[in-house]
Each structure stands twice: as structure tokens, then as C-alpha cells.
Amino acid sequence: MRNPRNFTKPLAIGAPAPLNDIPDRPSRMIHFFDPSNPRMAAKVPELVKKVDVLLANLEDAIEADHKIAAREGLIKIARDTDFGDCQFWIRVNSLDSPWCLDDVLGIVGEVGDRIDVLMIPKVEGPWDIHYMDQLVAQLEAKHALGRTILLHAILETALGVRNVEEILSASPRMQGVSLGPADLAASRRMKTTRVGGGHPGYLVRADPDPDDPDATRPTAQQDLWHYTMARMVDACVSTGALPYYGPFGGIDDPVACEDQFRNAFLMGCVGAWSLHPSQIEIARRVFSPPPDEVKWARRVIDAMGDGTGTLMLEGKMQDDATVKQCHVMVNRAKLIAKRDPEYASLYGFTPEELAAV
Ligand code: GLV
Ligand code: MG
User: What's the number of domains the chain is made of?
Assistant: First the structure.
């Protein structure tokens, strides 16, 4: 048990007080790059103008021989880059790796004031978060950082999914969680060899037609990730954190990527990872509420007055609950509009409407 009265007190003397609320900044795409790769590093100044979150990846996909170069590369990039209103996140190596401790000591020590969020892979339970929480607080105090560094967990082991509520309640530093389908599939011993998305073998089939038993029976592919996504979204919302879909490995299949991202958006996620520049625009389009839905939602809100009671609008029943859904859609659109001028003009909010956000 933790004393709830201590929850918003710093864990180390001199560290900044934890935040009461997680800032809900647009984070439609968390764009991954390899900071040990000079070609990718050269693109950073251009990327920060395009993406909501730029993430320097130190973990999987970075070869063991490049781990130190990646850490050093990101420190240099963090120092040299003007991020504007783009968030800067880092995925450190996992807690059981030989690199994690030096990642955190080095990064927070050198460029702690530039980091918004540390993404922690393969989190299994609250003990992982307690360790990181204490360590980061000690480093914040040691380096006299003026603002809190937030933590984000990747949900990518069976035990992590089992403990997702405890993980999210372990610290006020928890910004959110991403679903990591590749490691999760391995941990669960699923029989897949892809990174996220559907699988043609996971389906249900209609019964045979008694009059024509040999006729082709319709099938419908099912969603392998539905259960995990639903648990993650509920756990995040219950603790004031933000849920994200993670990676989609089929770079050559933008249609299926868009479907996977849209499922996540509809279920309550605020963003997804982009692993390739072509996925940036997909995430931007999917995680920005559709302008026609926003228009409809504004009509419902206007028609519903004080938000109580019931009325019919074009054959659809509206009441207190539909107006709440419409507010979710409009509020998200306003948040996006403040960062993205193209969507601001598609939504058509007045400057006064946006100023109130
Ligand atoms: C992400 O890290 C994943 O394993 O899917
Ligand atoms: Mg992983």
C-alpha cells in the first residue's frame, strides 16, 4: 500500500513535485528514429515540424554494437534541436538489459531538461515503475531539474497485461501505455510472425448450409488485439493516463495500417507509433477526429442546449450521453486544431473557441 497523501510529493528531496494531471498534448504519432544513424539524425530538424512526438529509440531495432552510439547521438540531438512544440520522448533499454541504467543516468544527467517522457519497455508490474520512479526522482534532484519527467510503459508481456491497472496506478508519473504487439505475441506464445495488425487465420466461420453442405461458408476475420486494447484503454482512463496503439510492421500495407490505427482511435487511443515516414500521415489523418463527425458533434451540442433531456436530429435520438460523446470528439478536435493549422481550418473553430482550450 502507498500513502495516497504522499502521491503528489516528490520521492527525492529537491525533485520537482509530481503533476496532478497528465498534460493531454496532441500525440497522434510517436515517430521512432535511430539516433545512432547519421542519416536519420540529419532529418530531425525537419521531422520536429511534422510530428507530434519524436522518439529516440535505444531499445529493440538498435543493434547491440550501436547502443552506446545511439545514446550519445540522442544526447547531441537533444542539445542541438529546437523542438518547438513537438514532444521529445526516449525509449530506453529494458530494465533487465545491460544498458538501461546507463541510459537513464546518462540521458537524465545530460539532457534531462529536454525530455518529456521516458518510454519503458517490457514493464511487467508496479515494481518496475516504482524503481524507475525513485531513480528518476533522485536524478531530477541531483541535476536540479525544474520539471517532472513522465514515464510511459509498453504493454508487451502477458504479465504486464495481467498487471496493467497496477502499473498505471504505481506512480503519478505515468503518462500512458502503448500496446506492443510484437513482443506481446512472443510472450504469449501466439503463433504469429508479424508486428501488429490482423491475421487471416484468426476467424469465425458460418455453419454449413444444410441444403448445400459443400458450398463455401462465409468467414469473418477477428481482431487479435481487441481484448488487450480494451483493457489498456479502461486502465488508462481509470487512472488519468493516455492509451496508444504501438507499431504496425507492414510498411508496405498502408491500408491495413490505417485500419489498425482506426480501430485504436475508435476504441479510445489518442495515437500510435510511426516506424516509417509514410505512417506519419496515416496517424495524423486517423487520430484527428474526422471533420464531418466534428461538424455533426457541434450540431448535437448546439441542439442539446444545457446538455440534458432528449431530442431527435435527422432520425437519431440524442440525450445526455450522446452529447457527452460529442464533447469528447469536439474537445479532441480543438486540441489538434491548436497544433495543426490544416486541421484548424478543416474544423473551422473560431479563435475564441480555441483560446478557451
Ligand atoms: C513493440 O515494442 C512491440 O514489441 O510490439
Ligand atoms: Mg517490443
Answer: 2
| Alpha carbon distance 357, 342 (integer Å) | 18
Do 329 and 293 touch, CB atoms closer than 8 A? yes
Domain co-membership, 211 together with 143: yes
User: What residue numbers bound the domain in which 345 lies?
Assistant: 292-355
DSSP conformation letters of 262-285: HHHHHHT--EEEESSHHHHHHHHH
Residues 157, 56 share a domain? yes
Residues 6 or more apart from 209 whose CB is under 8 A from it?
Answer: 215, 217
Distance 170 CA to ligand 2 centre (A): 21
Q: Give the nearest ligand 1 atom to 121 CA.
A: 2
Residues 296 and 202 in one domain: no
Verify that 113 and 223 share a domain, yes or no: yes
Domain termination residue (choose one: 287, 320, 339)? 287
Ligand 1, atom 1, residue with closest C-alpha: 180
If you take atom 2 of ligand 1, which residue's CA is the nearest one?
180
> Which residue ranges have their beta carbon within 6 Å of ligand 1?
60, 154, 156, 180-183, 195, 246-247
- Alpha carbon of 158 to ligand 2 centroid (Å): 12
For residues 235 and 338, state if they share a domain. Answer: no
User: What is the longest distance spanned by two Cα atoms in the chain?
Assistant: 78
Instruction: Please identify, by atom number, the ligand 1 atom nearest to the C-alpha of residue 183.
Output: 4
Do 171 and 281 share a domain, yes or no? yes
Residue-wise pLDDT tens for the chain (357 aa)?
788 889 889 999 999 999 999 999 999 999 999 999 999 999 999 999 999 999 999 999 999 999 999 999 999 999 999 999 999 999 999 999 999 999 999 999 999 999 999 999 999 999 999 999 999 999 999 999 999 999 999 999 999 999 999 999 999 999 999 999 999 999 999 999 999 999 999 999 999 999 999 999 999 999 999 999 999 999 999 999 999 999 999 999 999 999 999 999 999 999 999 999 999 999 999 999 999 999 999 999 999 999 999 999 999 999 999 999 999 999 999 999 999 999 999 999 998 889 888
